[in-house]
Amino acid sequence: MTSVSSNPASVPASGSAAGFAAALARLLRTTAGEVGLLLLSALLFALAHPSLASEWGFGPLAFIAIAPLFLVLRRAGWLQVVLYGALYGYVSYALYNYWLAAFHPLAIIIVPVVYMGYLVVLFPLLKLADYLFPRYGYLVQVLLWVGYELVKSLGFLGYSYGTMGYTQYRWVDFIQLAGVTGVWGISLLVVGASALIARLLAHAIEMRAAPWRRPTLARFWREQRIPLLCWAVLMAANIGYGASARDDYQADRQWRVALIQQNIDPWRGGFYAYEKSLEVLLRLSDAALREDPDIVIWSETSFVPGIDWHTRHRRDARRFGLVKELRTYLDRQTVPFVVGNDDGQLERTEEGEVRVDYNAAILFKKGEIVQTYRKIRLVPFTESFPFKEQLPGIYQWLKDADTHFWKQGTEYVVFDSGVDGAPGVRFSTPICFEDTFGYLGREFVRHGAQVLVNMTNDSWSFSVPAEMQHMMMGVFRAVENRRSVVRSTNGGMTVTIDPDGRMTSVLEPFTADYLIGTVPVVDGPATVYTRWGDWFGVAALCAGLAALLAGLAVRLAAPRAARNTRNERGAAVDSRPAI
Fold it and tell me: How far apart are CA 26 and CA 70, in angstroms?
């Protein structure tokens, strides 16, 4: 009779699955192996988004990108997970947002460091979920991850880049759920796949350590069939819902827009750049006007000298000359123009009247300023630093690095494109970074916007992937609110997006050209997201934290209950009569 050794190491691996599990187990037995899996997860995270490897991104990779990370957290010690959080936070965002080095010399340092901080907090919570719930902790981890994505988009440091749901921007049927849950529902399905894969791999490794408990897949199915079936049903239901919800909107009219992409950064090169930029803008606008658009839209700060400021305060002859040339041109136009501009204003302070500058979008009709929107959500550190008094050293450091600070706007402006009493289109102009935040797009729509017009200058990045990472978030602003989105940019991505999130026309990036696009104007009922905002992300965060608290309470109560039981048994023995 042949004997079978009880030592797992002596049991030969059978099949490719067992061999793969063995290789993973060996990796996870060493710090170098764990670090390697974390770096793999960071690389997959970056590749799932637009990157140097693919300008459009490898969206399907998002479904497996976080799996190596979850697997490492299950095996690593508590001190290690803190260090791993710092490592993963820095590396993942340095790879993903490599182009920040061109934006500002401090940005490529600040953003990854900020995410080191976020992940140093998140990783122990993910580890705690796995510790408290060895069999189903991965479900809590998914909720915590979605909650983390929400939290990182809020406050002064709010930054929406890197949210996993955005990677699916090209899968139109899949992302229609954003009209109900925002991007957070899409993230839950994407990250949920990684969590399930990681749990399967962990199960395979554990079964290899105890081969008498095989077959692995059958046991895994028995233990995890309900979560697996729920995730499969949710995926199928989401795709089915997306197919039925697509095109489910009523367009009141079509809006023909001319988007001007001058491909010159007017902030670089001084007065010569201002002149050259205006020359290109006027030439391209003339060409676009021959195609009879309803409106002409320039990009963010496409014209730098403050139009209103230099009209009223003629202290700089050369700049006033450029402003006069522009206003003379606009006087002759019969269609409205929207111009991105540095809007300088005199404001009274305790020190007297001082000039303040806003990053603004200005609506001109027949050469007159009709309405002005001033950017509400400024880029932290590089456009705004509200801690001048508390942190004067950092403030001066930023100023010495040639940081241009703006004053924050306060009003959600809705423009009206109507001319000479004719009914116009109501639209709002989130400027650059602002269209990366769902709550801002929602507020503009709640104030009456029928179309969202994003005005951006991303040309400083010299990177198409950077522009694509920005643009793909605009796709979700369309789906969330069932409104068309128009993006007029300096160097890309200039694009029109319909209310279903389909890109209907795209201009070649880093070219001086114009795009004539037609978008549906929708004034239908508000979506669930427009009415309730980020409710799903908040619910995921609250549910994840509540599960941790409940698990801790049960874990802490268990020893006390065991002690009480032992004491009761001891008391019962002591109370028995002596023989």
Answer: 17
